[in-house]
Amino acid sequence: MHVSNTHPHDAQRNTRHDGFYDVAIIGAGVVGCATARRFALAGARVVLIEKGTDILSGASKANSAILHTGFDAPPDSLELELVRAGREEYLSIHKELGLSLVHTGALVCAWNAEEHESLHGIERQAHANGVQAVRPLSASQARTLVPALSNRLVAALEVEGEHVIDPWSAPLAYVTQAMALGATVLRATELLHGTFDGTWTLQTSTGTLRAGAVINCAGLYGDRVDRCLELPERFEICPRKGQFVVLDKAAFSHVPRIILPVPTAITKGIVICPTAFGNVLIGPTAEEQQDRTRASLQTSTLEALLHRGAELLPVLRNMPVSATYAGLRPATEQKAYRVYNAPGHRAITLGGIRSTGLSAALGWRRMLCAFTSSSARR
Length: 378
Prior knowledge:
Blueprint: E1 20-26, H1 30-41, E2 46-49, E3 66-67, H2 78-97, E4 106-110, H3 113-128, E5 134-138, H4 139-145, E6 155-159, E7 163-164, H5 169-180, E8 184-186, E9 191-196, E10 200-204, E11 207-216, H6 222-228, E12 240-247, E13 258-261, E14 271-274, E15 280-283, E16 287-288, H7 299-312, E17 321-329, E18 338-342, E19 347-351, H8 357-360, H9 365-376
Parallel strand pairs: 1-2, 1-11, 2-8, 4-13, 11-19
Antiparallel strand pairs: 3-7, 4-6, 5-6, 9-10, 10-11, 12-15, 12-16, 12-17, 14-15, 18-19
């Protein structure tokens, strides 16, 4: 994947020759790319600033690629609102943009009596969240859908609307559409400092630019970008590493549904799911670390993932491994999204967007609508 740098003189439609932009978006992960598209569609002059050499160079480059329904999101939360809205928009545009959508559905699997009891609460929560297409299944019913499931299975909850997408072509399409509407993308450009005196002056590693408003979508560096912008320090990024194993295409026919664990208060847990490319994914782990740049792989951890996969679906034992990878999620001290509006400074921080970010990325329409309209009029 590669996005070319564009500069002010290359984007005549939405950019002034003096280098002023209506909106500067910091971070070209999936949230930043989707936000750039949203503002560009509204007619704003947009610059998207990315410190990496290409888009998706941070947290967004490694995820499980599930298009979530929000069935297990915290009730009445911003995350739930955004996931539902983002999923709805993805479903409405994916054909037009040529984006993938694998209709899989999911099974939340209980492997002991305690987890079985938890399924009742998950079903109630799904209904409260507006997700009605869920139904409890006995172990035998679940195995009619996924015959490879272990005999250890106690029960399951089917969630019909959970699907799989390609996690890279989607944000690439978002930013490509934004660029077609005149947005400027600056790669290998790090924000160094920003000051606000009615408009923003942003010092970057490749020069100075001005903007009417700033949106912080910096992911793993969201807290540091807020400091660079002299905004209040309201959260701290605590990187959480996830390691993944990708099995050969021979495994694909045995995993027709996404296999989800009963989630915990900390993590959604290890998932076994088909991919849009015909493979099977096992992961992620949830490992706290301080390093924001390096996500190393550990052989013992990868072996444990393979062992866990074979426990749940014995047919996966000895399946060839096609790839392994690891990524970092921008976790914070709280599980919730860390979203803050500073209207006096014409700035919004979209922080702490973790595993559901791919689903939520398109869901900011309501929150950004008034902000977009006022920016576009400047």
